[in-house]
Hints:
The chain is α+β, with helices and mostly antiparallel strands. The chain has helices at 13-24, 49-57, 62-68, 105-120, 171-176, 275-280, 309-312, 321-339, 343-365, 371-380, 387-390, 393-407, 411-416, and strands spanning 6-9, 29-33, 44-47, 69-72, 74-78, 84-89, 100-104, 125-127, 129-136, 143-149, 154-159, 162-164, 184-197, 205-211, 214-220, 231-240, 254-256, 269-270, 273-274, 285-292, 300-301, 304-306. Helix 8 packs antiparallel against helix 9 (343-365).
Amino acid sequence: xxxxxxxxxxxxxxxxxxxxxxxxxxxxxxxxxxxxxxxxxxxxxxxxxxxxxxxxxxxxxxxxxxxxxxxxxxxxxxxxxxxxxxxxxxxxxxxxxxxxxxxxxxxxxxxxxxxxxxxxxxxxxxxxxxxxxxxxxxxxxxxxxxxxxxxxxxxxxxxxxxxxxxxxxxxxxxxxxxxxxxxxxxxxxxxxxxxxxxxxxxxxxxxxxxxxxxxxxxxxxxxxxxxxxxxxxxxxxxxxxxxxxxxxxxxxxxxxxxxxxxxxxxxxxxxxxxxxxxxxxxxxxxxxxxxxxxxxxxxxxxxxxxxxxxxxxxxxxxxxxxxxxxxxxxxxxxxxxxxxxxxxxxxxxxxxxxxxxxxxxxxxxxxxxxxxxxxxxxxxxxxxxxxxxxxxxxxxxxxxxxxxxxxxxxxxxxxxxxxxxxxxxxxxxx
Length: 430
């Protein structure tokens, strides 16, 4: 086996999952992260059962995930009049063998980072080093990553493979696809925050309220405090505007004041939830455009592959962006088990995922599971007495089943699937 390390550009959820997977199968690797200090940044995300299964296989178990999040019990869609449109149990309550988790993104990243340091050693993640590009090694099969430090020093590192897990603004992708279209913004603006509150319904419910073009999504990401009864409620408020002028702020993530957008949610006060009060209760609020990138025909160039957001940044309408990064890492590991640390392994990974997940990117543009709220708006303007008179139950179930199948977490398929990486499997030496 080639003992040169697999180089991983990016120390986010995808890159760290790659490192843990490669270590599990006996392949040396090195993670290069551009920031100088990893910190638990971000807000809430959801981990679907398929990704949770893979974290368990990596030795990241329920006790560790419970410490940074909450097992999701329910998914609910609610119309503008506050009435339930659709409801289903999630995770083990739905019959999956593995739970769904609502977690703090930064908490998950730091959990994975600590596991990498514990298992691979402190030198396995080099911070302050940005991968700015790559070149194929003509002298022997391999790749050289072009690296720039925070101090401006530039050099090359040799590896057996390079995995570009360097996110939305991926330099690896930019070199692989120099003619790619710019970042795509469909006009949706998101504001995100975390507010202490009393969790509703099951106390672990994921709730979407409104329409695809004007909605609030919220869910707890930890258990309620034993004394106050309050839990951190992660929320996303969203509207869609005319995007013909493009994103005008020039900032992809900026802190804003609640007064800059709360007027869009005037009157959203129900007997079970006061939306304006929830929005006002956050210590910090950040504004983001909802963006993705047009799919590319391949994620691979010789011994270089894209993974996670670098490969398929998608609208967060299906709660499967972070989950897919974990799944990418595991499918990559399985391909290396089958083909060795070779370009052929990357081709097998690409063939397994690129077209399939590109379809999910495009499906998420169509609102993902929130498309039910679009359908409701088209048929009755979001106001109804009996949802079955507007969208019959069988139609609602079929809609959601199609999305879960496309996104890779249909329950029967997942429950009956063999492990992506068999227990104890290791890449064979020379």
